[in-house]
């Protein structure tokens, strides 16, 4: 192990332990703290990971390089080809965008990267992968002199499906489930939500603008703008129709962003509602069960936002700390939170990554 990385990890654990003990004494609600169990570290910045592989970016010979480390045996492979700007793990390998010409390439071990998209115009945030299986990916396709469509890629079959009518909205404005169901927003005005499922496309809304949909394959959650120009969070399913999760307010779009203001997983929906403390607005984190039961899980009278979710558990951030919220339980303090920190669920539980260091959450 690199001694510099080992020393940094040791210092991090000491700092985390000290801060957790001090913070527990100051919190206004009763909580208990998890602890972080070291998993792995890499000499670069983690881009993505699953139960077996870690994808990370490092700098070598004057340019960025993507590398894949096998967590089981420790072997490392360098992805060949053009200099990358971002990478994602897929079911069969790696998808990455290039720094110079904004192309997307697909790579698997022992192969040469193959071009799968000619021009994505730097919209790395518009590239989305199915959250657990990583079998499917979506991204915008720019059609010269026409507009923008949406591409759905099946990485297992190696096939693509083109969606939309040349007016698909990007930055990002689409979600994909583990079963390949896609929800996206497209013009013309009033910008409505469409769903692609089992080869069929269905228009779900008629009262836009509706933006930034996320889906688990059954439910679609998105941001709606009312005729008065106010934002709210809405859920659609075929069984219930539209349900308003967060009523409209006069606050800005920043309070209503996908993945931080709402998320969806296996029938559960995490979302934020606006409350006020001494006239100052702040977000509360709520969970909605598949049968419609609501649970307020954040507890704090200061701003909270979502970091990740899995079924009935949601990681959220409050005052630069990461917490785990669950129905009918006090929040669990996980760790300090800074820019670049990300939590995520793998097959055996929650994990947190800090730059090149990975930890498992032990509750």
Describe the protein in words.
7% of the residues lie in helices and 52% in strands. By secondary structure, it is mainly beta. The strands form eight sheets. It has a five-stranded mixed beta sheet with strand order 1-30-29-28-27. Strands 2-33-32-31 form a four-stranded antiparallel beta sheet, covered by helices on one side. A hairpin with a 2-residue loop joins β28 and β29. The radius of gyration is 21 Å and the shape is globular. The chain starts with a helix and ends with a strand. The N terminus is likely disordered.
Helix and strand layout, with pairings?
Layout: H1 3-26, E1 32-33, E2 35-41, E3 45-49, E4 53-60, E5 63-70, E6 76-78, E7 84-89, E8 94-98, E9 104-107, E10 114-117, E11 128-129, E12 136-143, E13 147-154, E14 159-163, E15 174-176, E16 182-186, E17 192-197, E18 200-203, E19 210-215, E20 220-225, E21 231-237, E22 241-249, E23 262-265, E24 268-277, E25 280-288, E26 294-296, E27 304-310, E28 313-318, E29 321-325, E30 332-336, E31 342-346, E32 349-354, E33 357-362
């Amino acid at each position: 192990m690199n001694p510099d990385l080992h020393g940094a990890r040791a210092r991090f654990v000491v700092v985390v332990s000290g801060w957790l003990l001090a913070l527990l004494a100051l919190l206004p609600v009763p909580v208990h703290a998890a602890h972080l169990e070291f998993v792995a570290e890499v000499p670069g910045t983690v881009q993505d990971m699953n139960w077996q592989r870690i994808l990370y970016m490092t700098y070598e010979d004057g340019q960025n390089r993507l590398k894949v480390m096998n967590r089981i045996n420790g072997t490392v492979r360098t992805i060949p080809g053009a200099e990358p700007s971002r990478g994602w793990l897929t079911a069969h390998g790696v998808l990455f965008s290039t720094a110079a010409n904004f192309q997307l390439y697909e790579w698997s071990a022992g192969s040469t990267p193959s071009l799968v998209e000619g021009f994505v115009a730097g919209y790395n945030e518009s590239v989305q992968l199915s959250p657990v299986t990583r079998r499917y990916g979506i991204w915008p396709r720019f059609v010269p002199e026409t507009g923008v469509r949406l591409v759905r890629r099946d990485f297992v079959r190696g096939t693509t499906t083109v969606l939309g009518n040349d007016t698909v909205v990007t930055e990002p404005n689409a979600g994909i489930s583990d079963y390949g169901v896609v929800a996206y927003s497209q013009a013309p005005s009033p910008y409505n939500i469409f769903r692609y499922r089992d080869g069929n496309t269905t228009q779900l809304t008629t009262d836009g603008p509706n933006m930034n949909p996320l889906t688990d394959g059954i439910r679609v959650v998105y941001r709606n703008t009312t005729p008065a120009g106010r934002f709210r969070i809405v859920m659609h399913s075929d069984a219930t129709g539209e349900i308003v999760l967060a009523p409209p307010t006069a606050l800005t779009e920043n309070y209503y962003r996908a993945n931080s203001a709402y998320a969806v997983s296996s029938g559960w929906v995490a979302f934020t509602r606006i409350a006020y403390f001494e006239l100052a607005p702040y977000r509360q984190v709520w969970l909605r069960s598949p049968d419609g039961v609501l649970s307020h899980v954040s507890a704090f009278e200061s701003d909270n936002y979502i970091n990740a979710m899995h079924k009935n558990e949601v990681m959220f951030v409050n005052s630069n700390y990461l917490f785990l919220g669950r129905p009918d339980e006090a929040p669990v303090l996980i760790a300090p939170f800074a820019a670049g920190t990300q939590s995520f669920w793998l097959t055996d539980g929650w994990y947190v990554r800090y730059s090149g260091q990975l930890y498992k959450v032990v509750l």
